[in-house]
Amino acid sequence: MSEPDAPPAPPSGPIATLARALAFAGGIALLVGACITTTSVLLRWTTSQPIRGDFEMVPIATGIGVFGFLAYGTLMRANILVDTFTTWLPKRVNDVIDGFWTLVWAAITLWLAERMIIGSLDTLSSGTRTIGLLALPYWWAIGIGALCFAATGIAALWWVPRHLRGQG
Question: Name one GO cellular component term (predicted).
Answer without folding.
Answer: plasma membrane
